[in-house]
Structures are given as C-alpha cells and as structure tokens.
Design goal:
With 122 residues, this protein is α+β, with helices and mostly antiparallel strands. The protein is built from 1 helix and 3 strands; from the N terminus they run αβββ. The protein has one domain. The chain is rod-shaped.
Length: 122
C-alpha cells in the first residue's frame, strides 16, 4: 500500500524564501512604526509636563498676588504681570499673569486686591 506522501507534488523552495522575506519586511515595518510612535509619545509627554509646570508657576503667582504678597518664583522662570484696564469689584483689579519657563508659557487672568504688590494699578 502506498502512502499519501508519494503523491504530493513538491513545493519549490523559492516560494518559501519569498514568504519568509515578506514576513521579515512586514515585521521590520511594524517595528519602525512602533519606535516612531513611542518617540513621538515621549516628546509629547515631556512637552505636556513643561506646560503643566509653567501653569503651576502661574497659579502660584496669582495666589501670591491674591494674598497680597509678591510672587516668589524660581530664577529661571520669567514672569510678566500686567494690570488690565477693566472694571472690577471695589478694592480689586484684574491682572494678567504670564509665566515662561523652559520655552513653555502659561497665562492666567485673575482678580486681585488693590493692595497687592507687583501688580498694582497703573
């Protein structure tokens, strides 16, 4: 009795090599796409962290002004406090606080007492 393997038609080895190369090309393409995505995500995460740090400093400056103190911020942070010429509640005025740190800027507008230092009325 003959077995089934005697009746099989042989497959060429070139076709198997083409399959392997196609698989390697697909895997390498997926690897490049994955590494690119991870790099972009890391850059976006660092950028978001810098923006959040600038916003925290701006919030700290606004809180200090609202308490009537001069803002105490790190030396590397640049702060710009501008009194806005808008109507406000008696005894208060509006100020715009912009903080720049490590190329990231955050700006807040707040209502502060007239007696606050650093952002007094013009």
């Amino acid at each position: 009795m003959r077995t089934a393997h005697y009746f099989r038609v042989g497959r060429s080895r070139g076709f198997l090599l083409a399959d392997a190369l196609t698989g390697l090309i697909i895997l390498s393409t997926l690897g490049v796409v994955l590494f690119t995505a991870v790099g972009r995500q890391r850059h976006a995460s660092q950028s978001l962290a810098g923006s959040r740090a600038a916003l925290r400093l701006a919030e700290s400056a606004v809180t200090s002004l609202q308490l009537g103190h001069s803002p105490q911020l790190p030396a590397e942070a640049r702060v710009k406090i501008v009194a806005l010429p808008t109507a406000a509640i008696a005894g208060h005025h509006w100020v715009s606080v912009a903080v720049t740190q490590d190329r990231h800027t955050a700006a807040l507008t707040a209502l502060v007492p007239d007696s606050s230092q650093g952002g007094g009325r013009p």
